[in-house]
Structure to design on (594 residues):
């Protein structure tokens, strides 16, 4: 399950609370497109804003609507004790894998992050993906630390943020990381605008926000990458530049994806947990126009 | 309660869990020194690593051991809903004031942070202090936003991180902020190494990590500041340079204060919640040596 397209859906949270029907509608788009895995409660899935009971319930709903597509559940928390409780809940809900970001409050040291993963791996029976996302966790991994953690039994993938924009630099960056990882641990790209460069640089999986709402568009890209069609990968991603531009304009993808889910009628236009707020009406109209013009699905 | 010395105690969490007896011993040092207020569950109080029931219990213990010293309770969480629940708990425990940091996961926009404070102020009856600490929250306040939030009824103080090291620059910085605040809203310095400069620049209160464990040393400084003895403030702080050096060396104060609490026999040397880990034995010995040489109390 740590190759191909891993779709990361939004978790719609409207003023009335978690929107279960909207979430199921989003999941159905992903299953109908045949994603290789589903990553629920990632950053775009707003795990950080939800209670433990909400996260447990959402993992269960994902599992019961995923068909035979494996489900990875993010168990991030600043507290190791809470990570273990969330891991218990996710496993009880049937999670096929867990995703762990080293969420920081106090700045973490390398030995503390290693200790966090070591404690989790001693506690769980399903495979785990390392979630490297300094923009939200504030922790910067070294390749050496990735390698040290990846040698813990059960680690199966590393989710990295963007790669350098030059194809040669991107390939060098991915190869340097891979040289520290044991066989069988894949590298996955996130940061959707970097996906084509990352896949062409040797990443085996796209942990994709775009794929959480537009799985057909994302799967075309990972399918082309799997066939080695590097130019086609770039073309398909370049076509989505208006979407990547919206992500840049709004300081990340989550508010854009929330606006898109609302524009598609999948949930309420106001579907982000507070303190997050929806884009302005004008910006939402721009998002809707981009979806229409690209015929995104 | 938003002037003078506000002491921010460590919350000791040993491998056996929250160390209530150790916490009470730490509180007793603060009350015996006559701090002007106690700020529990701040960053050094590890609020971010504790569950809601733990935070409620700790607020109650602080209140019942604070004598007539007012207690401020930090209610930080990335989720607005959780902030409101924590505020309910803190008020039920008898908190005299609340402290709110805009803890970020997704990067927050100014209107989102304003909305967070507006929602809290509509919900609570006790005064609130704005907690500006970009090092842990990842949110950078503008003076304009401070002023806008400070005009909400019930806001009584702004806790700022360090000030520029030059006294003139520090005074200009504090005056610029004060010009945006309504009368009756104080400015408090944190970042202990900056305290003397901040107090001499016009800050009315020191939100003090040092004061959480060495309240006599901290109170000497705020007492001198209250008497307008600016040179004495600088002298007293300069004497504590070996402590500030340890804070710098270890990337912040929390691991040093944990080592100090252990060295003083107040709690276990391993008293930080995971994933945080104690300093090495050698570094703990260095901390103990500094406490002894400065006769800190």
């Amino acid at each position: 399950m740590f190759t191909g397209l891993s779709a990361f859906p939004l978790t719609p949270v409207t003023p009335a609370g978690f929107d279960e029907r909207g979430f199921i509608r989003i999941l159905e788009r992903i299953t109908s497109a045949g994603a290789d895995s589903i990553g629920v409660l990632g950053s775009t899935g707003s795990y950080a804003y939800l209670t433990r009971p909400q996260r447990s319930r959402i993992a269960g709903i994902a599992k019961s609507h995923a068909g035979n597509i494996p489900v990875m559940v993010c168990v991030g928390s600043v507290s190791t004790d809470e990570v273990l409780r969330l891991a218990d809940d996710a496993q009880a809900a049937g999670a096929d894998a867990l995703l762990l970001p080293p969420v920081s409050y106090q700045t973490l040291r390398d030995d503390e992050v290693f200790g966090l993963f070591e404690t989790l791996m001693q506690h769980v029976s399903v495979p785990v993906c390392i979630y490297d996302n300094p923009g939200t966790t504030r922790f910067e991994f070294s390749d050496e630390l990735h390698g040290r953690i990846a040698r813990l039994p059960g680690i199966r993938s590393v989710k990295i943020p963007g790669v350098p924009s030059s194809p040669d630099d991107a390939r060098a960056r991915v190869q340097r990381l891979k040289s520290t990882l044991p066989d069988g641990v894949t590298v996955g790209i996130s940061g959707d605008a970097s996906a084509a460069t990352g896949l062409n640089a040797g990443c085996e999986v796209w942990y994709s926000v775009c794929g959480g709402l537009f799985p057909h568009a994302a799967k075309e890209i990972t399918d082309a990458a799997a066939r080695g069609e590097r130019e086609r990968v770039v073309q398909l991603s370049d076509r989505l530049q208006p979407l990547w531009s919206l992500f840049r304009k709004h300081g990340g993808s989550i508010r854009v994806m929330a606006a898109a889910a609302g524009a598609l009628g999948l949930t309420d236009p106001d579907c982000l947990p507070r303190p997050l707020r929806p884009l302005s009406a004008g910006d939402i109209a721009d998002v809707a126009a981009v979806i229409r013009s690209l015929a995104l699905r």
Summary: Chain B has a mean pLDDT of 98. Residues 4-227 of chain B form a domain with the TIM Barrel fold (CATH 3.20.20.70).
